[in-house]
Specification:
about 90 residues; mainly alpha; 5 helices; about 0% strand
Length: about 90
């Protein structure tokens, strides 16, 4: 009797490593790598605002989808823009 109940619950044909709680998400492609004409400029505040949140913090790689090399470039550009007062350090 218990075997029949167990069998009804586990009758789906999943792989061994399948977990229904965690779906595989599509891999993000770095926007700076994919678009060769895209030049990151610390003087362009509109461009840099895509990489900071509403509080003014720099967004992490998992959010921006940038590769490690370009995330470092983004960070440097944002810090330069903050230093010369193009971007604020914190939002009110």
């Amino acid at each position: 009797m218990a075997d029949k109940k167990q069998n009804k619950r586990n009758n789906k044909n999943y792989d061994d490593d399948y977990n229904p709680r965690f779906r595989k998400q599509r891999k993000k492609v770095c926007t700076l790598c994919s678009d060769k004409n895209f030049v990151l400029d610390y003087k362009n505040a509109d461009q840099l605002k895509k990489f900071i949140n509403e509080k003014g913090k720099i967004l992490p790689r998992r959010t921006t989808g940038a590769c490690a090399k370009h995330q470092r470039d983004i960070t440097i550009a944002i810090k330069r823009a903050r230093h010369i007062a193009i971007l604020p350090y914190a939002q009110n």
